[in-house]
Amino acid sequence: MEKLKILYAGSPLASSLVLKNLVQNAQNCGFEICAVLTNPPSSRGRHKELVSTEVANEAKNHQIPILEFDHIKSEAREAVQKFGADLLVSFDFGRIFGPKFLNLFRLGGINLHPGSLPRYRGCTPVPSAILNGDKKIEVCVQKLALKTDEGDLLARGEIELDGTETTLSLMDGDGKKSAVCEIGSKLLLDVLSETAKMGVLPKSFAQTGEANYTPLLKKDDGEIDWNESAQKIERKIRAYTPWPGCFTEKNGVRLKIIRASAIFSEKGTEKSGEVFGFSAKNENPQGIKIQCGDGSRDFVGSILGK
Length: 306
What we know:
By secondary structure, this protein is an alpha/beta fold. Helix content is 26%, strand content 28%.
């Protein structure tokens, strides 16, 4: 019996970690990654050198053919069609696949989504969950649909949150493994193993509940409003690590805020945004104390200059 042939689509580090897990388990689960679709190299650093995506680098490690296109149009469809893939598997690719593209695959496509559906559809489910103070996040495998994240679900799992996580720690972890990628890989492998065995996708189930769409983040979204509560500001800093990062303006200088804690204390008389103290050497957490909008909580943060 021929193995299930998969085209994998993705670009950043988290997506490459999932790709690595899939490749390592492909033979035992009855499928093969016949090619990867990823973004073209981008210019980075002072010298603007072209750098391949993390998914492309991982594919090179396993001698998997790499397809790189700026747009998913006729040229991309022709290149993909040559591989005769049965199924498209996508994670963090960042583009919507049109009907002509999805029709290239006998079994259609599936997507790994690190957020509860339909509550956190869209491109920023993890930051949104942290901002809202959720106690857990879901990771879902869904059918790819023509509209963003509207496809039926094939599998889902949960990650408990303790209130210290950042988007970076959940998605990328230590660069070798992360909570999202570990559970996401397991869910995908279960789905792919059953698909390879049965020749069709497992039975799906509809999303239930109110649908919401998470926003695309912009650099300016990281500016701190000191009239907000310390707890809300602390969540924002964790949610916006690494992108877009948080900052505040002082005397025309932009100061980056890299981490923070919300602590309880007596109500202060300072105005929101005013510095009123510094942590002692033996005090935890360490940092600059700033008055926030709720009046009864202080903010302790580590701040770097521009």
